[in-house]
Structure formats: structure tokens, C-alpha cells
Design a protein that fits this description.
It contains 26 helices and 19 strands. The chain is of the alpha+beta class and 782 residues long. Among the domains are: 161 residues, Orthogonal Bundle (Arp2/3 complex 21 kDa subunit ARPC3); 139 residues, Arp2/3 complex 21 kDa subunit ARPC3; 215 residues, Phosphatase 2c, domain 1, CATH 3.60.40.10. The strands form five sheets. The protein has a five-stranded antiparallel beta sheet, with helices on both faces. A five-stranded antiparallel beta sheet has the order 10-19-18-15-16. It has a five-stranded antiparallel beta sheet with strand order 11-12-13-14-17, with helices on one face. The radius of gyration is 43 Å and the shape is elongated. 38% of the residues are buried. Keywords: Hydrolase, Membrane, Transmembrane, Transmembrane helix. This is Stage II sporulation protein E. InterPro entries: Bact_Sigma-Reg, PPM-type-like_dom_sf, PPM-type_phosphatase-like_dom, SpoII_E, SpoIIE_N. GO terms for molecular function: protein serine/threonine phosphatase activity.
């Protein structure tokens, strides 16, 4: 026999002292009353004591005690005194024994069985003559109490906790519990209609309709065997209900009428097979009324089966994890694809390609010798008899040309002054080849730089792929206990929760997936669900929608993850130069994972030209950051792209601020950008830079600064048009600091607007350069 180690805690024991007649206690009272009336051999009714035993230590144990006593009295009258005394002793001793200790359900079942056997042996010995048969029946009832206590402990609800997935053992125990309750109806009738038959038909059809053929057949077999055990036609009813549950589940795709049709067909087939053309085992009136009840109440049972845990979750954890992996992979690959697509587009706009051939110095000298000296009368003397001197002389000629940019007669090697008869032709040929050589060399060097850039990009892609593989290889732990608590809390708050899945990847990394029906109701909104679940797990959460095209019309699927400790928001104020509608400043901001970023780019000049430059930089930066590239690699790549000049130079400043929303750490990277100001509660900090804009030099000069932020800090970024607007100020940074320090507002938009207002006031509304202000406010999430 399997030992179950569920324990009754002290908190559960204290809950016994509080009587709250809520929905679960009403259900327990109904079940307890009818289960205690269910009888087996010679009117024995041990099931009420088993039901009470399984309820001990839970908030509804008093309801179970009272309902069991009432059920026994309604069946036996005062002849049930041995059952009543046993129940009272079990309840009292359990309450006393568990004041300071915990007790498992196995020990509780064994304890109840011994109490019942002891009381009945004492009664048998004292009050009447006895036979060995009497003791055998007492021990048999004790064994039934022990076994059924164990079964009921699986079938009864665990307080208000609802599981999203049940084991086969638990489902079978629930079926047995309901079947025994139906068995307790016995002779309850009205107008010759048996309540026992009505409820049996109703529950079998409902189980098939809600849970399918397998569980429908299981419910039918349980009802047919247990509820009708004392009847002579039990085997036939067992077959009818079993087949009825099976066909009800098979035809449920046709709706309620399909389920009704399935059960009616099962009854007709089995009745015809057993009785031929005679009447049905089930009354047609009872069958019709039960079908009507099913049609009316089946949806209610489906949506509100809160206190009878029959539901088996349709949400497969493996399917959810596969969907998450697929979603993550697709998203990452999409971003990377967009990066290279944009790179190709930018190359077409800002660069031109010219096919060249690269020659080394040996080929250079051979080319001069072949073109000029081959047909010369001095060829044999120069290139055979005095090869070394000739070769070195041409090499010196090339070196001198490289050093001085040209050759005059004074710098000519001695060979060309005294011996060579084609000096002019050699000089002319050397000049032309040298010019071509310089072009080739320049392009070779640039190609080498580009190869380095590509290598860095490939390294970045490799890092992204490595991170992706780690995400895919994560082995989640599914937290069923947390799922139960979340499901219960959402149900109690009237949320139409369908499924819950909690996947934990590490101590700090977990995801909660929820499927919620009736999306139009306010209780089912993402915000409400997030707040309830956050309270359950005790951690602030943030969430978003995940798309499920198969169920989009029926349910919403939410994904909740751990919220950050800090929040951030950015607001903008901007003005273009007076005669240009198009601003040369571009910006972006947003949240990616646990990081928040804001970036500002100021293209050199004004108007469309400057806008083109800054837009290139910001657009590429966005794509690189979204794809997961390191910021330094991203900036080097952007710099190299802008360095691939066409006829005109393209360069722009970049000012990037990233905030770790978990630690509150700010990192700023500047390339030729205006200072960044951090407004704290009692002071204003300045982050300045002396680097050049990207696109000017082959090696980008990055200046990185780090600072930890506090609750309520402002990060203020601006283009140089704002800083340079006050031509009268000797110390422009001090002028901006004074403005920021005097702004008394917690609204980032107000801060941005006031800075812009002061800048326009300083230049008397004669804006000479584009002006943009980005203000990011950071706060701690309570």
C-alpha cells in the first residue's frame, strides 16, 4: 500500500476554531450527509467516519462532522450510536493530539480505524451475545474506514487551493467520492422519479461533456458499480453508465446535443442487447429530465467546478516550453536579419565600390623593367651583368618617391644619372605605377579594416547565438504548488482562469504563463491578473500578451516575469533651426530586457543632410541593441560604415545612456556629444566628453562613464544646439547647471520644456542650430 505523507499543519488546526459557511463548506456538508447514508452489507455505513477522517485538520472538518452525524441519524436513527460515539471520539482526540504536533493522513486513517474497532468491540461484548462473525464484520468495517479515509483525502478539495493538473489516482478518488454520495440518495424519490438515477445520469453526461471520453467512461463505471452495488441489476447499469460516459465524451464535439445523443444511444444499445425489445433499465422520464438538467446546468458546472477538483488541465507544460523556445528563437533571428538588411541598404547609400588590383613591390619593379627596359640596348648590361645594382636603384627610386612625393634630378640614384639612357621614360612609368600603387594600397588597408569589422560583427553574432543556445538549453522546474495557489487566488477573485504554468529556470529567473477566458471582462485584464499573481508570489511582476493564433478569439494568454527594481520614462522637447523644417537631431529610447536606453544623435550641419547622418546612426544603433550586440561593437560598426565615404563626408555625434533597471547603474557612452547632466535631489552632476564624432576617424574614440542612480534622479541629454544657444555665457555648462538646479518639478516633460524655453530665450528665438532635449526620469518601484 502506498503511504501518503500529507501533513496537517498547526495553522490548519487553528482554522478549525473558525466556522465560515462558505461555498466549500456547503459542498462538504452535502457530500458528508449523503456519503454517511451509503450502506454496504447488512446496513453497514462506515463511509461517514471515513469522510470525517479525511476532513480532519481542514477548515471544513466541523461541517463534515455535523453532516456525517445528520446522515447517520437519517439512515439508522438512534441505532447509529456506535457510529456517532466513534465520530465524536475521533474528532475530539484528533483536536487534542494535534495541538502541538502534526500528523500525517496515514496515521490519521489508522487512528480512526482503531477507534472505531475498539468502540464496536466494546459495544458487542457488553450489550449482546456475540459470534466470531460479529468480530469479522467489525474488522471489515475498520478496514473499509482506513481505506476510504485514504481515498477521500485525495478526493476532497485542499482548502481553496485548485490544481491545474491531477494525477490518475486523484481523479479516480474523486469519482469514488461522488459515486458514494449518489449511493447515499437510496430511496429519495418524488413523483416516482429517483434522485439517484437523475444525478447519476447528469454527472456521467457532464463528465463526458467536460473532460472527454476517457474520464466520462471512468465516471460512468464508478457510478454504475458503487452507487448501485446493492442492486441485483448492477452489472447491467454498470455497462449502461460506462458506455454512456464513453459515447458522451466521443460526441461532445457536436455540443450538448451530441453528448445527450451519445448517452441515449448507449442506453438504447445496452438495453436492446440485454432486454431485446423490452423496456429500458433507465426510466424514460428520468432520462429526459436528466438530459434537460444537463442542457441547462452543464456550462455552469464547466465554469464553476471550483470545489470539486475534477478538471484535468489541457495546458501541457512541454507544449508551452516549446512555444516559448520557438518564440524566442524567431525573435532573435528576426532582429539579426534586420541588422544585416539595414547594413546592406546603408552600404548602397554611403559607399561606392571600385574594383582594383593589388600588386606587391616585386611586381611593381618587374612591370617597370618589362615595359621600359625590355627592348633597351643596355638591357643585358643592366639586368644581367649588374642586376643587383639596377634592382636596388629602382627600389631606391620608389622609396624616394614615397618619401618626398616626387623625384628631381638631384635625388636620382647614380645609375640613372650616369648609365641609364631611358631615364625620362623610367621616371614617367614609375610615377604612373606609383600612383596606382598608392590607390591599391589605400584600398587594401581599408579592406583590412573592413575584415576586422566583419570579424567583430561575427564575434557579436557568435555571442548572441551562444546566449540563444543557453536559453534553449535551460531546463525549467515546473512549480505545481505555486500553480495551485495562483489558480485558487484568481478563481476567488472571479477571474476566468483556464490554465496556469509556472516555469523556474533559476532562483532569480522564472516565467508564469496564464490562459484567461472572457477577455472582455475587467476582472480578466492583464493589469488585474498581474496584481493578483504578484500578491500571491510576493514579488512585483510585469507582464505582456503572447499571441496564440489558435485561441486568440477565445482566450488571452499572459506571460508574467519578475519586475525590475527601477522604472524609467523619457520625455522630449525639440526645435529645428529657423529656416529648416527637418531637424538634424535624431533620438530613440526604450526598454530591452532589464535595461533601459536613451540615445541622441546630432548630425553635422542642419536640415536634411544632418537628418540623414543622425538617422543612419540611430537606426543602426536601435537594430544592433535589439539584436543583442555589445554597445562598443555597435559603435565601431557604425563608425566604419560612416567612414566609407562617398564624395562628401558623413559624420555624427552619438550620446547613449543605458540604465540597469535592476541595480540602478547608469552607463553613458559619448562620441563627440554634448555633456549629459544628472539632476539629483541636492546637486547636478555633469558628464562631459572630449571625443570626436563617429565617421571622422577610422578608430572610434569611446568614452564610457558609470554612475549609480537614486530614486527620482533625472538624466538630461541634449544636442549642442541647446548648449551653444547662449552666446553670452562664458561657462555654458554652468549656465545649464543653474537652469536645471532651479527647476522644481518631478515631471520629465516639464523639465524638458523649461530647458528648451530657457535656450530659446537665451538666443532671442533666433535658433541657429537644431535643439533637442531628452529627459529620463528614474524611480524605484515600491
Amino acid at each position: 500500500m502506498t503511504t501518503r505523507t500529507e501533513s496537517v499543519s498547526l495553522n490548519e488546526k487553528r482554522a478549525l476554531q473558525k466556522i465560515s459557511f462558505n461555498g466549500i463548506q456547503i459542498v462538504i456538508a452535502i457530500l458528508g450527509f449523503f456519503i454517511s447514508r451509503a450502506s454496504i452489507i447488512n446496513g453497514m455505513t462506515p463511509f461517514g467516519i471515513s469522510f470525517l477522517t479525511a476532513s480532519l485538520g481542514r477548515s471544513f472538518s466541523i461541517a463534515a462532522l455535523i453532516s456525517s452525524i445528520l446522515g447517520l441519524l437519517s439512515f439508522h436513527g438512534f441505532n447509529s450510536y456506535s457510529y456517532l460515539i466513534s465520530s465524536g471520539i475521533i474528532f475530539t482526540l484528533f483536536a487534542l493530539y494535534t495541538k502541538e504536533k502534526e500528523i500525517s493522513i496515514f496515521k490519521t486513517s489508522l487512528f480512526s480505524s482503531f477507534i472505531f474497532v475498539g468502540v464496536n468491540i466494546f459495544k458487542t461484548i457488553i450489550l449482546k451475545n456475540f459470534y466470531i462473525y460479529d468480530f469479522l464484520m467489525i474488522f471489515f468495517e475498520g478496514l473499509v474506514i482506513f481505506t476510504l479515509s485514504y481515498i477521500f483525502s485525495y478526493g476532497l478539495p485542499k482548502e481553496t487551493v485548485r490544481k491545474t493538473k491531477f494525477t490518475n489516482e486523484e481523479v479516480i478518488c474523486v469519482f469514488i467520492t461522488l459515486s458514494l454520495a449518489i449511493s447515499g440518495l437510496t430511496d429519495f424519490e418524488i413523483f416516482s422519479l429517483s434522485f439517484k438515477n437523475l444525478l447519476s445520469i447528469f454527472f456521467v453526461m457532464t463528465s463526458g461533456y467536460i473532460y472527454g471520453a476517457a474520464l466520462g467512461a471512468g465516471m460512468g463505471i464508478s457510478v454504475g458499480m458503487i452507487s448501485y452495488l446493492s442492486q441485483s441489476d448492477m452489472p447491467f447499469l454498470l455497462a449502461i453508465f460506462g458506455l454512456g460516459g464513453l459515447l458522451s465524451g466521443v460526441f461532445r464535439d457536436l455540443g450538448k446535443f451530441g453528448t445527450i445523443l451519445g448517452f441515449v444511444l448507449a442506453n438504447s444499445i445496452m438495453s436492446f442487447y440485454i432486454n431485446g425489445y423490452s423496456t429500458s433499465f433507465l426510466s424514460y422520464y428520468e432520462l429526459a429530465i436528466a438530459c434537460g438538467l444537463f442542457y441547462i446546468f452543464s456550462n455552469y458546472m464547466k465554469e464553476n467546478f471550483l470545489f470539486i477538483p475534477l478538471s484535468v488541465s489541457s495546458l501541457d507544460n512541454n507544449d508551452i516550453y516549446s512555444e516559448r523556445t520557438k518564440e524566442l528563437t524567431t525573435k532573435k533571428l528576426k532582429y539579426i536579419s534586420e541588422v544585416f538588411k539595414d547594413l546592406g541598404g546603408i552600404f548602397k547609400k554611403v559607399s561606392y565600390n571600385e574594383e582594383v588590383y593589388t600588386d606587391n613591390i616585386t611586381k611593381f619593379i618587374n612591370c617597370v623593367a618589362n615595359d621600359v627596359c625590355k627592348n633597351c640596348s643596355m638591357n643585358v648590361f643592366c639586368w644581367k651583368d649588374d642586376f643587383y645594382t639596377t634592382y636596388c636603384s629602382i627600389f631606391d627610386l620608389i622609396a624616394s618617391m614615397e618619401m618626398t612625393g616626387g623625384i628631381d634630378e638631384e635625388n636620382l640614384p647614380e645609375l640613372f644619372k650616369n648609365t641609364c639612357i631611358n631615364t625620362e621614360e623610367i621616371l614617367d612609368k614609375t610615377h604612373r605605377l606609383f600612383d596606382l600603387y598608392k590607390v591599391n594600397y589605400t584600398w587594401e588597408k581599408r579592406m583590412a579594416e573592413n575584415r576586422k569589422l566583419v570579424a567583430e560583427q561575427l564575434s557579436g553574432i557568435s555571442n548572441i547565438m551562444e546566449g540563444l543556445m543557453k536559453d534553449i538549453d535551460k531546463s525549467p522546474v515546473f512549480k505545481e504548488d505555486v500553480e495551485m495557489q495562483i489558480y485558487s487566488s484568481l478563481k476567488s477573485q472571479r477571474v476566468n482562469i483556464k490554465n496556469v504554468m509556472v516555469a523556474e529556470y533559476s532562483e532569480e529567473d522564472f516565467e508564469i504563463y496564464l490562459e484567461v477566458g472572457k477577455c472582455f471582462k475587467g476582472e480578466n485584464s492583464l493589469e488585474n491578473v498581474r496584481d493578483i499573481v504578484s500578491e500571491v508570489v510576493g514579488i512585483p511582476l510585469k507582464g505582456d500578451f503572447t499571441v496564440d493564433t489558435m485561441k486568440a478569439r477565445e482566450v488571452n494568454r499572459y506571460k508574467l516575469i519578475k519586475a525590475n527594481r527601477y522604472g524609467a520614462i523619457t520625455r522630449i522637447a525639440k526645435n529645428s533651426e529657423s529656416f529648416n523644417v527637418v531637424s538634424g537631431d535624431s533620438y530613440t529610447f526604450g526598454e530591452e530586457g532589464n535595461n533601459y536606453f536613451a540615445a541622441l544623435s546630432d548630425g553635422m550641419g542642419i536640415g536634411r543632410r544632418a537628418n540623414f547622418e543622425s538617422t543612419i546612426a540611430i537606426s543602426l544603433l536601435e537594430k544592433f541593441l535589439e539584436a543583442g550586440f555589445d554597445k562598443e561593437i555597435a559603435l565601431k560598426t557604425i563608425n566604419s560604415i560612416l567612414m566609407l565615404k562617398s564624395e562628401e563626408e558623413i559624420f555624427t555625434t552619438l550620446d547613449i545612456s543605458t540604465i540597469d533597471l535592476y541595480s540602478g547603474k547608469l552607463q553613458t557612452i559619448k562620441t563627440g556629444a554634448a555633456p549629459t547632466f544628472i539632476k539629483k535631489k541636492d546637486r547636478v552632476l555633469v558628464i562631459d566628453s572630449n571625443s570626436l564624432p563617429v565617421g571622422m576617424l577610422k578608430d572610434v574614440d569611446l568614452e564610457i562613464y558609470e554612475e549609480y542612480l537614486d530614486d527620482g534622479d533625472f538624466i538630461i541629454m541634449m544636442s549642442d544646439g541647446v548648449l551653444e544657444s547662449n552666446e553670452d555665457a562664458n561657462n555654458k555648462e554652468k549656465w545649464i547647471i543653474d537652469i536645471i538646479a532651479n527647476i522644481d518639478s518631478f515631471n520629465p516633460q516639464t523639465v524638458a520644456n523649461m530647458l528648451m524655453k530657457e535656450a530659446k530665450k537665451a538666443c532671442h528665438d533666433e535658433i541657429k542650430d537644431d535643439m533637442t532635449v531628452l529627459v529620463t526620469k528614474v524611480w524605484k518601484i515600491k
